[in-house]
Amino acid sequence: MKKYSRIHPLCLALAATGICSFPGLASAANDSVTASTVSSAINVGEVSSTTGALDTLGHLPSKKQVFDSTQSVKVIGKRQMATAGPAGGAAQALAVAPGINVVTDGPSGAPRSSISINGMKTGWGNAAGNANDGTVMVTFDGVPIVDPAYGVWQGSEIPQLSMIKGITATYGPGYPINRWYNNIGGSINFTPLQPTAKAGASIGMYYGSFGSRGIHFNVRTGNVDGWSAIIAGGVGSSGNYLSGYGFNNPGNNYAYYGKVRKKFRGGHVSFGAYVSRSVAIGHFRYPFHQTPT
User: Fold this and answer.
1) Which one of 110, 122, 127, 231 has the minimum C-beta count within 10 Å?
2) What is the b/e burial string over 22-31, where b = at least 16 CB atoms within 10 angstroms of the residue's CB?
3) Under a CB-based contact definition with an 8 Å cutoff, are residues 238 and 250 in contact?
4) Torsion over CA of 239, 242, 243 and 246, rounded to 10 degrees?
5) How many helices and strands in the chain, by DSSP H and E?
6) In this structure, are residues 137 and 183 in contact, taking their beta carbons and an 8 Å threshold?
7) pLDDT at 288
């Protein structure tokens, strides 16, 4: 009498794949495999990527870099900033960029102002303020200068344009490497004058309508044994074109900036400081009174 042993189907499957083996079953399992499956590689072409995201914090982007970028970026250079006038500040300079709306209380850099990028705002240019303050990140040489508690920035914090090399405005959050903590609506980076390889200095002054006057300077040491530095500053004051009927809004401001850079093989290290103060006083004067009858 022949004996028949029952083998579970799972064991048969494992034996066919070579995971398990049983005496007398290996030959049968091998016979069931008629051909081996061989996978060959298929060339679908070459996948390329971009060289990297546009850096809007470390330097002032060039026209070609902005053109090649996938982000909406606007660079405001010296010539465009000149349209704000010698007494103008950050708010007046940003007004030349498309999609940026500015509401300010005066023509100089001292009065308060509201900056809006595609509807997202920061600062305040009226008594009521704005409902969505703190949705635009503002940086100076890549360092945030907004109020860390409220996320609000005032245009009067940068009243002097003489020390600014250019402004980079990004519409929308932008690349992750350039974001801080409130780039919801966009970002604005003010790039100041940088230390140069050669020494130099400049000074300028202005005098104009409505009592506007001021003076500014910058001094560059040039490269000395890998060290280079720059110091710049300016002082200004002005009245207001909104005058009459007892209204007066004079303003005055100053700002100073310094930076030291040390170059070495493979990179460099920088130290900088910036300080500013702006005062704009708006008040009404009533030179007459009426006696009730």
Assistant:
1) 127
2) eeeeeeebee
3) yes
4) -110
5) 5, 15
6) yes
7) 39
Q: 3-state SS of 202-267? A: EEEEEECHHHCEEEEEEEECCCECCEEEEEEEEEEEECCCCCECCEECCEEEEEEEEEEEEEECCE
pLDDT at 292 (0 to 100): 43
Whole-number pLDDT of residue 53? 85
CA atoms within 13 A on the CB side of 103: 14
Residues 6+ apart with CB under 8 A from 161: 81, 84, 88, 89, 90, 93, 109
Report the SS3 class of residue 280: strand
Q: How far apart are CA 208 and CA 213, in angstroms?
A: 6
Max Cα–Cα distance, the chain, nearest Å? 137
Q: Three-state DSSP class for 115?
A: strand
In this structure, the number of other CB atoms found within 10 A of the CB of residue 261 comes to 18
Q: How far apart are CA 179 and CA 166, in angstroms?
A: 19
How would you classify the pairing of strands 143-144 and 113-117?
Answer: unpaired
Q: What number of residues does the chain have?
A: 293
Would the pTM count as exceeding 0.85? no
* Token pair recorded at residue 236: 């200004």
| Grouped pLDDT means (10 residues each) for the chain, 293 residues | 50 50 47 51 52 83 91 93 91 92 84 86 72 83 87 89 95 90 91 96 91 94 96 91 65 95 92 93 49 40
